[in-house]
Amino acid sequence: MSLDFELLNEDRTTSRAVLLFHGMTGSPYEMKKYGQFLCSLGYDVYCDCLPGHGDKVEEIYTVTYQDWLNHAYKRFEELKSKYDEVYLSGLCLGAVLAVAVAEKYPDDVSGIVALSTTLFLDGWRLPWYKIFIPIGLSSIIRFYYTYPECEPHGIKNERTRAVVKKLLEKSDVGMMDFPMTCIFELLKLSRQVRNKKRLSKVTAPILFIHSKEDDLTSTKSAKVVYEGISSTDKNMIILYDSYHMVLYDNEKEFVFNTVGEFFNSHSKVKECVPC
Asked: What is the value of pTM for the model shown?
């Protein structure tokens, strides 16, 4: 079963698109409502499963961060050849990939929305034994150990958390664990993306949204990118009633509306066609 999606405006006259990237061990499913909202504003929206994600869970153990990058670069190039404006947005790992694309194509990205940017795994819910993770990452142990996904599943709202937990248990919208190999590749990607020379190449307008109580990654990740990029049009919004999954938590309506205002304020195409 493919969870990839394309949300296209009916008359196909739009010249602007948004490319979405989902989070680590997640799937496009977690971006679907977000994508539908952006489509309703007049954007064509695209989101694919990242390499190593999807039906075959075992593939996550063979993927590298370069596979993620190559996928992101290719999809952006494809959309840029068809649209006048191409925006990027991602959650968690997806936000890091959005920044990576902007580093490679600084003159072609129309704008970026980085949600819960994850360069560092330093959130409050990580266990005390996280100090031993570097040992596991540098050894063969990383191919055999998975870090269990656990409460609160990135969501502060208890009702929504219960729904997400049931969906995860079905194993069709994301993984219940974080394979250490995946964490290893995320951290390698992080080191590349946060390189000062690379970050300084980013000039596109960019909006960061990050929770003060993010349980997976602290605001440090977003701040490192914010301070390192060359964009003059940049803004960081800190949420105070959400955890990591800001698209589904208590402030989701605020997040959606703020993102919509950001994209529309930077788009030269003002007519909006309902999806």
From this structure: 0.87
